[in-house]
Write a structure and sequence with these properties.
The protein is of the alpha+beta class. 30% of the residues lie in helices and 24% in strands. Strands 6-7-8-9-10-11 form a 6-stranded mixed beta sheet. The protein has a 5-stranded antiparallel beta sheet with strand order 1-2-5-4-14. The structure holds iron/sulfur cluster (SF4).
Amino acid sequence: MQSTTAICPSLFNATSAQDGILSRMRLPAGLITFKQCEVVAKLTNQFGNGEIQITNRANLQIRTSQALSFDTLLDLQDYRLASSEASTDGLRNIMASPTAGIDPRALINTIPLVKQWNFYLANHPELEILSNKFSVCFDGGETISVSDRPNDICFKAVEINGAIYFSLYLGIGDRGDSPSAVGRLIYSKQNLEVLAALTEVYRDYTEQKLNQTNSCTRPPRLRELIRAWGVEHYLLLVEQKLGYALRRSSLELLSQESGTRVAYKHLGIHAQSQSGLAYIGVVIPLGRLTALQFQGLGDLASQYGGGALRLTPWQNILITDIVEAQVEQLTREIKGLGISVSTNHPYAAIAACSGYKGCKAAFTDTQADAKKVAAHLENCIKLDLPINIHFSGCDKSCAQHHPSDIALVGIQGKEKKSPEAYRVYVGDGNTNFGKELYTECAAQDIPNLIAQLLKTYQNQRRDFTQTFREFVNQQS
Ligand code: SF4
């Protein structure tokens, strides 16, 4: 029987929430086959509330009325929806760009690396003592970048003097910060052994810490090791384990290689690097869809595409490997499921954490408030560029760590008649959320406020290419 005591849910150890027992399936690189979609849809209909949720690490979450039985967990292992080792099922999902292997701009296909690392984790149960938050990401240089997503370790492909390397990034900042380049280049064939050595040294540190204190203490995060030892000492121990020194590179050179990359360009129809094939990015409102829609998309991927869906860290879905001549027909069928493919749909770039129905720390019902905003915008404004609006029930910002165009952070309202309120931020500013625009705005006034902000932007922007972010950043 599934345990239900976890703070971070997995399949073997779920979380008991106000709206049911929350289980999370980790899908490396967000890949799920149409057959697996069918299994998840059936499971959700049989034991759950018929709804499936995509998380901001491209996992799947389902809510059930009771803990899953041991037999069900074994079935999920058979379909590779659960790790073969229950002990490492709780480690965070392995992240890759949703366009890995299909993006014409990518330097390298990272999907094989994701699979190799997942295999490594499954065969090293001794890693179960690591923090469940231990997270690894591979960025192959795609237009849809993931290297700025919060991860402990990120390998980011760079091209230097015509050769492709991975630049090593480590999560050395605060919770939610992007990882930083540490000036080491890794040849792609050494990737796995370097990652294994980074993990082994971290495991040794974890073991020491757990042995020093009583067994109830939580395992340290990798960033705690880095704060205690410093990056250079950590890497020295990694090099000792490897038996060779990692190639050094100046940080200036690495930052020149970054280029401009974006988050929401995966929505809509795009050509793949494979000639004659295209992918479609579909909009999943707040990452939630019905089991019927999920299975429907899986079936369409089988009929028109490569037979798998790709879940994105922006809580949307891609169908890939579609013959270009069939794109139009497939688009019609996706719409028939009640799902949009438009980049400019109000839901395209709205993110919200679980809010007070799923989290005790929340001051607001973020999910309901985000739905009200999307419905209002649909009726009163036509967007022509995606606008990223982020609802957070408190300042921990679980749903999205990168800055948004408009951020709404739940607070306890001072007015008795409107105890649910948000602090409103826009663009870039001197806080993690951007520039503070309003200290307090009642939740019921948010839809009108956002519509007004967007209308002002559309009426006063320099031209149609100026983004909302550029527009608000230029205002004093
Ligand atoms: S941001 Fe705050 S309210 Fe929302 S899920 Fe995280 S801790 Fe809970």
